[in-house]
Amino acid sequence: MNKTRILIINGPNLNLLGKREIEIYGKETLLDLQNQLNREALKKDIEIEFFQSNYEGAIIEKIHSYFEKPYQGIIINPGGLTHTSVSLRDALLGVKVPFIEVHISNIYSREQFRKHSYLSDIALGVITGLGFLGYKFALEALLYHLKKI
After folding, report:
1. Looking at the predicted structure, is the pLDDT value of residue 107 above 90?
2. Catalytic residue of the set 25, 66, 71, 135
3. Considering the entire predicted model, what is its pTM?
4. Which of 66, 103, 118, 135 is labelled catalytic?
5. What is the 3-state secondary structure (H, E, C) of 29-56?
């Protein structure tokens, strides 16, 4: 039996975690996040793949890679693409894979333009404002959902 495979996507500027706006995003880096989630994956005997890009097209192509090497779910922090990208929405709709949208900061307590997401209404769920813990909760929720279907 194949292991459950989860794709974790981080969008533009998330490679700067630990350096960028520490008062909002904290001191931990993207590598710290990956290490935390790798430990969770090991405990749960699942496979996770990480992908980060500052380029919308690269993220869309990664989502499309589902057709070559399927995964059962996606956890995505689309960064600023949350508020701008119809193409990202269409890619997620195109693969029909359950996904959870995650944001490190509480997007609803920030600037007005951050309060709209092109993804939230098609996501399995949205976790916002809980820092890196949000990714762990997203993983738990996604695995719970996959057991039900």
Report:
1. no
2. 25
3. 0.94
4. 103
5. CHHHHHHHHHHHHHHHCCEEEEEECCCH
